[in-house]
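Quick start: read one record
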Amino acid sequence: MIVITGAAGFIASCLVQKLNSEGYHDLVLVDDFSDAGQNKNFAGKRFTKQVDREDFVSWLRENQLHVQFVFHLGARTDTTEFDYALLNRLNLDYSKDVWNTCVEFGLPLVYASSAATYGLGEVGYDDDETRLEQLKPLNPYGESKNDFDIWALKQDRKPFFWAGLKFFNVYGPNEYHKGRMASVIFHTYNQIMKSGEMKLFQSHNPDFKDGEQMRDFVYVKDVTEVMYFLMHHRKDSGIYNLGSGTARTFLDLATNTFKALGKEPKISFVPTPEDIRDKYQYFTEAKMDKLKSIGYHKPFHSLEEGVEDYVQNYLSKGEYL
């Protein structure tokens, strides 16, 4: 069996589809399955069992002989969450329990970290593990992810293979339930369909013009390809960036969304909300040399390719991956 935590969520449910497409159906899905909106993400997919996240660690201990691989992708991912106790319970302590159980029973583990750990990029976006304690995340979510990365590296006992993946700005099908935390592409599409235009955030940084803030947007199909590769690779443990490796502007993103819809761009700018203005990343770009160095050489979707596929084959049709 292959275990996927956070399985009702965005990236994990796309991983379930990737595994199904490769012939893997003996999957155990772990999550809080009380959200009907999220449950649509795994409708029609093939799996063996659902396990409530509160029961998972004990279930894993009891069923470890049947488990081949663990993808721990479940987390509290809201970057505006300031309940430290909740984040410590779900993102730090829970992950430690999963890690320690994998160590005890010799199970390989891939877990979700985040590019939110890099903060404003004061020391760059290099997945050099010696720099982790220098990073300055901008919010408690990023802190919780960095805290776990640091903890994992300090452990004397580690899974025989493990990888922490620093996801950059992932977009794609199955993020319908994420609300404010959904990708800018998702919000751009919905704004265009509702009003015929897109309002992007103004720049409050003199080094960037309006709309020229840059992020590393990575298509979820590329993310699942990397995870599938790691499931078979099972060596070269460590922490890896997972982005496209190329920063693009929000204007590029919005313009390509209009193009995928066959519409002329109509873009204006509004002030960045004050509650996120001081913690806003103006530039992110994953340094991808480390992943390439262990043999991953598949090309990533360009922003143009990813947006076109997402808009035309999923958003416009209300389809799930």
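The chain has a mean pLDDT of 94.
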